[in-house]
Amino acid sequence: MRWRFTIPWKIGIGFGVFMVVVAILFLQTRRVLVESRKINAEINEVFTPSIEKLEEFARNINGSRMLINHWATVQSRDDVFEKQHLRELVNETLPNQLTAFDSLAVNWSEASVNQKDSLKIELEKLMIVYTEIGSMLPDFQSYEDLQQRMDAEFLVLDGEVVDRTLEQINHHIDQLLLAQRKGLLDSTKSMDALGDQLTLYAGNLSVFVLIFGLIIAFTVSRSIVRPVSELKRTLLYLGKGIYPRNTVNVTSDEIGDMAFAVNRLVDGLKKTREFSSQVGAGNFEAQYSPLSEDDELGYALLKMRDDLAANERLLERKVEERTNEVVRQKEEIERQKERVTELYKDLTDSINYAKRIQQTILPTKEYILDMFPKSFVLYKPRDIVSGDFYWFKTSGKKKLFAAVDCTGHGVPGAFMSLVGHNVLNQVTKVFTKPAQILNNLNRLASEALHTESEGESQLSDGMDLAFLSIDDTTMELEFAGAFNPTYVVRRGELIVLEPDRFSIGSFEYGEKEYQNQVLQLEEGDMVYIFSDGYVDQFGGPKGRKFMRKRFRELLLEIAELDVDKQHQKLNETLITWKRSLDQVDDILVIGVRM
């Protein structure tokens, strides 16, 4: 069997070479990082701590020089700070620091260890001298002994015992610091050298690996992609019903096998097209040879030719019968169309009449302006009739008004609004406090909507509303709400009266109660109540809801305008926001200036 350089071999060899190069780069980089980590640990755990502790030790040693001078030359009590601090250095601090050098010295050179041992000897000498001076002048009275005082002062003179010993100690410390700093510098240079290597591996060699990988990928993909692209182009032509002019180049791999099959398919389809054209033109004597004994399409085409020849004769007899039937059906469709048009007109007339009925329950503009001379009502039903309605009534010194949103819109909402309006009129004959009105409105609405009849289930309809009562004399506002809040704008600030979160008709009377809220109004306050239609309207650049936050900002912006201009601004903003989208719900906004 002849060996072929197949696609798996091409991909395997190409990516195998690439992976070997990447592995070499990875191992070199890992080696550099391991060495760098070791040097960094040596810097952080040996050189840096050693330098810091040596420098601190040197500061304490030199500080002890001033303290011992003070002890020997200044008459003072035993408990002065200088003496206590020197005792602490001699007894604790300096010995502890010297002991700490032992753990660090494990990683020091032999010369540094010798320096450390010499330093320890000199420090012991210094401690002996400090102890001797302390024993000469142990307390305040001991300074009266001139001989002892002179002996002590002699020991701390320049060039004498203390000075010479400190000079030796500082010499040992300097030698140790020099050795540690040199080690730190050498380690830093090693780190820089490793950094240069890492830069080489991660930078220059990575670019080489990337270029090498691209070359391998290009070489491998070119040997695969080009014939695949030819196959793709040919198949796309076939998918659009276009026969390619050129045949696909046949290679010695699996793609070549597919190319051979595609070329043979194209030839067969060309023959099939010619045969189908002949049959389609009515030449039922046209000849066609299937591609093989298993060519199901070819044999199906031959059968189709024979069936079409038989069906043509049968169809000619049925055409005349069908033509007569189509004429009869067309006449029937015209009669049905006229009937539908008539029914649609009757339905529209009925809804328009329902609109006139609904308008009779709404207070007139004159009635509203008589109650509130500075007020407006923005009322935009979604359909011809609405589920939202507004209600105004005067009861003694109190002015009552509400914005009501009934379940649904259109005809169902309109029927609900009639129920709500009638129930409100009944309740307000007895009550004027908003919470009492809503509680009894819930009772009567539940009785009206949830009464079960035989064979009927309970309704689940209800109402959301904001109900206000304003006392003409005291300017006191009382509010109760079912889901719908009240906004009051006063000198550029928004006051929100939050509603209860349950609808009218959603619960049995006595299960819950609406809360009465009181607010003292001021002259110039702007009071707003509304349904949720405005804030729920979709629109804007992204087709989203208007939302309460944007609605509150709009009210704050227009609150100082005349009420007619507020009405105009609210309407224009809604139209601009909605754009070409449909209105999704009934819209109602009421504004009253105090």
Fold and architecture overview:
The chain is an alpha+beta fold and 594 residues long. 62% of the residues lie in helices and 12% in strands. It is built from 12 helices and 12 strands. Strands 1-12-9-6-7 form a 5-stranded antiparallel beta sheet, covered by helices on one side. It is flat, with a radius of gyration of 51 Å.
Give the tally of β-strands: 12
β-strand amount: 5-15%
Counting helices, strands and paired strands, the structural category is: alpha+beta
How large, in whole angstroms, is the Cα Rg? 51 Å
CATH topology of the largest domain: Phosphatase 2c, domain 1
Total individual domains: 2
- Ends distance: 102 Å
Tell me, what's the shape?
flat
Total helical segments: 12
The ordered string of helix (H) and strand (E) elements is: HHHHHHHHEEEHHEEEEEEEEHHE
Could you state the CATH homologous superfamily of the largest domain?
PPM-type phosphatase domain
What spatial order of strands do you see in the largest sheet?
1-12-9-6-7
Mean pLDDT: 83
Query: Which architecture of the largest domain does the CATH hierarchy give at level 2?
Result: 4-Layer Sandwich
CATH class of the largest domain: Alpha Beta
